[in-house]
Amino acid sequence: MENNRLCELLRIRYPVVQAPMNWVSGAALVAAVSNAGGMGTLGPNAGATAIETDVGLTGERLRNQIREARSLTTKPFAVNIAVGVGSGRQYSQRCVEVAIEEGVQVAVVSVGGPDVYTTALKDAGITVLHAVSTARHAKKAAEVGVDGVICEGFESGGHKGFTELTTFTLIPMVADAVTIPVVAGGGICDARGLLAAMALGADGVYMGTRFMVTRESNSHPSVKEAVVGGDDTCTTSLPKDMMLARDLKNRFTEKYLEMNAAAASPEELRGYLNEHSQFHAQAGGDAEGSEICCGQVAGLIKNVAGAEEVFQEIVGAMPSSVNRLTRNITVFL
Length: 333
Ligand SMILES: Cc1cc2nc3c(=O)[nH]c(=O)nc-3n(C[C@H](O)[C@H](O)[C@H](O)COP(=O)(O)O)c2cc1C
Prior knowledge:
The protein has 14 helices and eleven strands. It is α/β, with parallel strands linked by helices. It has two domains: 5-218, Aldolase class I (TIM Barrel, Alpha-Beta Barrel); 221-282, no CATH class. Strands 1-9-8-6-5-4-3-2 form an eight-stranded parallel sheet. The longest helix is centred in the C-terminal third of the chain and has 23 residues, at 307-329. The protein starts with a helix and ends with a helix. Bound molecules: flavin mononucleotide (FMN). Flavin mononucleotide (FMN) binds at residues 19-22, 24, 43-44, 80, 82, 110-111, 131, 152, 155-158, 185-188, 206-209, 212, 293-295, 297.
């Protein structure tokens, strides 16, 4: 815990945050990660078994997930607030209210600006980590008063901005832009990745895809199998309305990219997406015909492990990774 300011800020043992994942990161995964010494994060639709459009019910489901996670761990964990735009904002607003009512300790705020919820969350005593994909946005988040920034590179699974900045270039730029703790995500799943992120200036790491492929995640077994089967070129990037999404290549991505190349209208693309959404893959098990958000790091993941094993592997491999690094850089010392 000592000497690492992210661990101190979040009151965790290891500087590893499990990134929020829509449909995937529910109470069981979150508690397993927090019990293992990291920080688990409840994602949107955690605990849902059907698509829910009622704002009130969405809030109550989050409340139940928070309470379930609390029954499984005494350690701190986070809730994802995906800010959203337009009518999507009513869901995040309700989730903020529930997080405050339930006394959640940490919020991971993503998909929107830091000026929307930071003050309300901080006034309620909640530690705020804000996800960004540029140094400029990191600076803005720090100015608004967040406690730490999460920078996500283009390698990351899921939805990002259009800048295509990779983790390797983004971390040092963000670390130079702010003085608050920096958490780095995108392409990290093991001790080597953690060391590299720290060498570049990060205080900790943010891992999604690695934790999607754990026994405790709510991801469907056929999706986990497909991700474990992925190689170094198994993902692709899809242009959507306001962002890019990194997904596992499958029949769904092939068709979507074909439609996009044939200049399909935004409505047609949205309609196709809705019919083949992550819900159908993660809850329904349609790993070929529906969207699976997935990072490039899938090519490094060879097994469906328990969350605790993921931590044991990182801790176990750390000495040899450090030795190798030290050996290679002694020429400079
Ligand atoms: C299946 C999946 C679902 C995701 N859903 C969300 C989400 O709901 N909210 C969010 O902020 N990020 C989401 N992400 C992005 C992750 O939080 C994180 O940025 C990313 O996984 C980090 O890169 P990595 O996959 O290389 O570890 C998702 C990622 C995956 C793989």
